[in-house]
Amino acid sequence: MINISPRQLDVFVQIALHGSVRAAAERLHLTQPAASMALAEMERQLDAPVFARERGRLHLNARGRELLPLAQELLERHAEFGRRGSEDGATLSGELRIGASNTVGNYRVGELLGAFVRAHPQVAIRLRVANTEAIAAGMLDHSLDIGCVEGPVTHPLLEVRPWRDDLLVVCAPPEHPLARKRGLKPADFAGARWVLREPGSATRATSERVLAQLPPGETVLELDQIEAIKQAVVAGLGIACLPAVAVTDALATGRLKALKTPFLDLRRKLSLLLHRQKYRGALLDAFLEGTDLDNAQPGSRRR
């Protein structure tokens, strides 16, 4: 009979998330030998390894990838059992791993997390900020519990829930010829020098959609941070398509000018990502219930 303990499952999950026994031991306040023994005993009971060993790192093999979401669910259910059985059963604790694309993580994190953090101070939030492509990948490999992105994501295993409307603006330095011209037309952008986000970014995808509506120009820089793009535009290196929320300060101080481009559609939707096969326990339920969705979707969130 297989008798795998919650501690062994915890070690397995933490190694999967952090890539080494040492990191898992530190997160769980165990000695490294104790963590190694827990993993070895779990693999012995399963009669199969769950990791491939490569250059000192542990990577989930096919069996491990299949078992990871089940192990996470068992641990969440175990914690929920204890919470409901305790006297202060209403107090949520634990860890929530959230991924946010750059606009959300850098400029809207208060909107995303503020209400939940105030309501549940015992819950540890682990926030990863990356581009939309990386956040979607984190959702698919179960290293994230929920994602918030600014770009379209299409995958059969991911549920997309609208969260906020977002607006981009085309920015230029005040001395740029386009900033001085009144009544801009698409033809005025012929030969323009553009500073873009990196491929995989939702802002890059929106910028490419905008560029397709304009005469050919030149991409002079590709940068992976919005702040870096702002500074490049302020320095006169080119123009850029940037989230309005990210340039409020630069527009107010006159370091940037927003070009009037009514002929361009610069709207987009910020969305929450959920894995359709992930167990949605009390933590995730509380987060979703406290999130002001643009279009709340009915239906059970628990499996």
From TrEMBL:
The protein in question is named Transcriptional regulator
Q: Which UniProt keywords apply?
A: DNA-binding, Transcription, Transcription regulation
**Would the keyword Transcription regulation turn up in this protein's UniProt record?**
yes
Query: What family is reported?
Result: Belongs to the LysR transcriptional regulatory family.
User: In this protein, which residues make up the domain named HTH lysR-type?
Assistant: 4-61
Record bears the keyword Transcription regulation: yes
Spell out the CDD domains in the cross-references.
PBP2_CysL_like (cd08420)
The record's InterPro entries line, in alphabetical order, gives: LysR_HTH_N, LysR_subst-bd, WH-like_DNA-bd_sf, WH_DNA-bd_sf
**Organism in which the protein naturally occurs:** Rhodanobacter panaciterrae
